[in-house]
Amino acid sequence: MVKFLQLNLNHCRAAQDLLAQTTREKRIDVAIISEPYTPKHIGVWHESLDAGAALWSCGQAPHQITQRMARKGFARAKCGRIYVYSCYIPPSIPLAEYTAIIEDIAQDAHGKSPVIIAGDFNAWATEWGSSRTIPRGTILLDILASLNVCLLNIGTRSTYSKAGRESIIDLTFASPDVARDAQWHVSDVYTHSDHFAVITDTSQLGSRGASRRLQHTGYKMDTRDLERLLPMVEGLGIRGDANSSADVIAETITNACDAILTKVRKGGNSHRPVAWWNDDIAKAQRNFRAKWKLLKDAIRRSKSRYFQELCDAADAEPFGLAYKLVMGRLCRQPMPTNPEQLKQIVLTLFPRQTPAIAPQLPAYGINDCALTDDNEVLSIAAKLKADKSPGPDGIPNGMETSATCADPEARQGTG
To answer: Are 175 and 113 in contact (CB under 8 A)?
Structure first.
């Protein structure tokens, strides 16, 4: 069967160059790629319509990939007898578009078996080890539940790491007959990407241990000794039928090579590197990987130690640094800069209102005492206070009005 490697290259040229060597070292047949740098010209390449996902048949003898189909967000092809989907859905697209792509994948995969659906889905769900489930994770699980597939991700090993932040977003789904015997793991190989390589080995499907790669014997040609080799193969000729003659010739040459040349065992971990690979690059890769691991371990230890110190400080001083850090995270909001957004915020906080216009108060005569509310009473009182000059009868203006208004009997007597 087929051995797969899936990896998000993050549009990085160095990551794609290293992938060419990694596929040889790990004896990979087909690479399931997200965000490739550029199409490869060696082997067979098939990518999605938006070029965000690709399938690369990269083995020493590239597998023929048939029944190809490309859509936005994924590419599909048949490798051997397995239908393989390479998927990449960016984190920036709207939820409705994300749903449409997943539904498109499920609709195309319906009725196809065996199948592998793999790639970077940019979704979180507790089912594959995330700390929480987001809407994308729920959508992915609900839609793929209509297919007869299983999740191959095991454990809580992250597939993405950048600036101390880790997550599991590179996923592999497979039909039960593939999942039953497939070997899935996150590789420690250095990728020069912020994603880790994920390897799915289906080479044992159908016969556990029976279909392992044959251990072929080869020879180091720089150890050949023609002066000793030629005498051992002299006298070879065709005797009898073609099959028996071929067997005799093959056995004679094999015996001669075994006796003269240094053997090298092909298969297992042996590989033929890419043309530009050399010992200096291999050493630099090993050193970089070792230092990168030391850096990760140091960061993890420091974060753990600092968190414990914060917890101890919070016990001693509840409103100290730990409190300020938490409140700063909760209260910190980015300052909006978009003019339309700022305008909307201002209009919401300070809505426009129609200017208030004071009502026109009626003019009251001296003998008009029909006071209807407190405002009118205050208005009359102000007028009386302003005009206190004595009238013809020696009583200040307005006083007779007050007396008359205050005494109903007097009002009746004035007729």
So the answer is: yes
Q: For the chain, what percentages of helix, strand and coil (3-state, to nearest 5) are there?
A: 40, 20, 40
With the C-alpha atoms ordered 370, 373, 376, 377, is the resulting torsion angle positive or negative? positive
pLDDT in tens, 1-36: 789 999 999 999 889 988 988 998 888 999 999 999
Residue at token pair 């594959």: 128
Q: 234-250: per-residue pLDDT in tens?
A: 666 666 666 667 767 77
Q: Is 109 helix (H, G, I), strand (E, B) or coil?
A: helix
Calpha distance 258→76 (Å, rounded): 46
At residue 242, what is the residue type?
A
Cis? peptide before 351, omega within 30° of 0 = no
Copy the structure tokens of residue 241: 């039928």
Q: What is the pLDDT of residues 46-85, one digit of tens each?
A: 999 999 999 999 876 667 788 999 999 999 999 888 999 9
- Cα dihedral sign for 72, 78, 83, 88? negative
Q: 176: Cβ–Cβ under 8 A, 6 or more apart, which residues?
A: 148, 149, 150
Strand partners, 172: 118
CA distance 207 to 177: 12
Give the number of other Cβ atoms within 10 Å of residue 311's Cβ. Answer: 10
CA dihedral 243, 245, 248, 249 (to 10 degrees): -110
183 near 201, Cβ under 8 Å? yes
Distance CA 207, CA 365 (A): 114
Residue 235 CB-density burial (10 A; 0-12 exposed, 13-18 middle, 19+ buried): exposed
> ∠ CA(203), CA(209), CA(215), 5° rounding?
80
Tokens matching residue 289: 């990987």
CA 110, 116, 121, 123 torsion-angle sign: positive
